[in-house]
Write a structure and sequence with these properties.
By secondary structure, the chain is of the alpha/beta class. The chain has ten helices and five strands. It has one domain: Glucose-6-phosphate isomerase like protein, domain 1 (Rossmann fold), CATH 3.40.50. The protein has a five-stranded parallel sheet, with helices on both faces. Helix 8 links the parallel strand 3 and strand 4. The protein starts with a helix and ends with a helix. It is an enzyme of class 5 (isomerase). One of its GO terms (biological process) is carbohydrate derivative metabolic process. This is Phosphoheptose isomerase. It holds the Pfam family SIS_2.
């Protein structure tokens, strides 16, 4: 953890206003680290710009961010053994992944569920289906009170998952429901979102350094 702290120090040097969020960023990292150490996954959800952030986080976790993440020799050998020509391409180009799913992207499932059942439970339904004990639900909400994110957080805890919240400065229901809540010190939506990005980039850099 000590070596990884340089990422947080760099974050705060670039965004001094995030000094007050430092401890919660560290705690959120520890939750994510344990999740991946125990071979579990992260489910991420948000609305609007926060949905785009959820997709962005998945992109940083599921492929190389700053590091190449080449397959280990054992897996590379198995790929070539299965099919020499195709396997060599795979061995050269596949990258190590930290399993993460953005819950906003499943249009057919979400629209079917919203049409047939209860629209505000579209994320909760996916947490119910994908989630399990040891996984993490990462809920992003600038207000901290987005109902579909709150329903998903309740479902996550019932499934034995940890919940990380990423919100603005105001006290919120998501903060109360989270095992760890990173509250960036802004109250205007776009300003909150401008601080969310460097926070989750920092977490992703730390995780990549730890596991790759």
């Amino acid at each position: 953890m000590k070596d990884l702290m340089r990422h947080i120090e760099l974050l705060i040097s670039r965004y001094p206003v995030l000094e007050e969020s430092k401890q919660d960023i560290e705690k959120a990292y520890s939750v994510l680290e344990k999740c991946y150490e125990t071979k579990h996954k992260v489910l991420i959800a948000g609305n609007g710009g926060s949905a785009a952030d959820a997709e962005h986080i998945v992109g940083e976790l599921m492929k190389g961010f700053k590091l190449p993440r080449k397959p280990d020799m054992g897996f590379a050998s198995k790929l070539i053994e299965k099919d020499e020509k195709l396997g060599r391409v795979l061995a050269e180009n596949l990258q190590g992944a930290l399993p993460a799913i953005a819950l906003d992207g499943h249009v057919a499932l979400s629209t079917a569920y919203m049409n047939d059942c209860e629209p505000l439970l579209c994320f909760a339904q996916q947490v119910n289906g994908y989630g399990g004990e040891g996984d993490v639900f990462f809920g992003i909400s600038t207000s901290g009170n987005s109902k579909n994110v709150l329903y998903a957080a309740v479902t996550a805890h019932a499934k034995g998952m940890k919940v990380i919240g990423l919100t603005g400065a105001e006290n919120s229901k998501l903060e109360q429901m989270s095992d760890v809540c990173i509250k960036v010190p802004q109250t205007e939506t776009y300003m909150i979102q401008e601080l969310h990005l460097p926070v989750y980039h920092c977490l992703c850099l730390m995780l990549e350094d730890r596991f790759f």
